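Continuing from the previous page of notes. For each protein in this section, the sequence appears first, followed by its structure tokens. Read the first protein now.
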Amino acid sequence: MERAKRVGSAVNLDRKNLRLILGALFLFLFVLSLGLYLASKPWTVRVLFFPETSSGKLVGERRFLPPRRGLTSQIELYVQELILGPSDPLLDRIVPAEVDLLSVITRQGKVYISLSRDILTLKPDARLSFDQTLQAIANGVLYNFPRVRSLHLLVDGQLPGEQYADGFSFEKKLLK
């Protein structure tokens, strides 16, 4: 009988210790997750513009992108996301999937974005012409990065075609 009381009190003691240990573990994990949450940088919201499949009008799609340091790195990530295409199945790509981002250079508010020559080959069912594609890319960059004063889109590091010999003027146009 005496032994049964000792075993019963030992079981109660173990349950109390177990609750205490689990409570301390929960509190530790809560404090750790709160600290990590407060220490991490918030995601950056960017708007990518893609044409609707039905009307061809540009429509904004919000994306939460990881934070990057520096304007060059932010624009690189934005253009790479643009090349990946829309997540909404009712929207079309703005550039062919084969297009590569070659470089992004920023100097005192001027931005130079060089894309591969694959941007020149438009699909027969493309919603936008080449000029409209360049303007749509420019609109998106200028909309998301207000610090950009001038933007130059290049194909393989050069201005695309003879008609652009004097440069292609990109302005902040109203998006539909």
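Done with the first. The second protein uses the same format. Note its length before scrolling.
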Amino acid sequence: MVVIVTGKINSNKTTKMRQLYEQNRLGDGFIAIKNMVHDTVHSYDAMQLSTGEKHLLIKRKTFFEDDFTVGCQIGPYLFNESTLFHIKNTVETLLKNKVSPIYLDEIGVLELENKGLHTTVDMLVKSNTALVLSMREDLVTPLQNKYKFDVQKIIKV
């Protein structure tokens, strides 16, 4: 069972994901917290919902100072390889502990290209665990076709 939170860019998908988790505090997972410098995106932190622990996930190239190993890139955004591994390892532990649902924010173009969190998403879908995933509305059909997940509900924000 997959619940999808969708909308356009900057439509508060992450806020909705956080609200869904906080309604009953069941499950666990990660949301992407945007960090701004004036009116420019500086970076994103991956925040684990149950603990509030944050790890630098993405940094805009203009702010990058060789402070992490780049796992992949999309446009001006560089992805921290160690945080991608941390998310994957944490999700594996959540699955072993039968935590449900599992939340994963901002699935998108990278995953369609087998990059970013692709292996994590693939593992989650194959596990048949209840999922709450966020993605842009124009990517719902391509991602559903790629991962073959059964959508229980779509929440558009």
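What the second structure shows: DSSP finds five helices and nine strands in the chain. Strands lie at 2-7, 28-37, 40-48, 54-60, 70-74, 77-80, 102-104, 131-136, 151-156. We return to this in next week's lecture.
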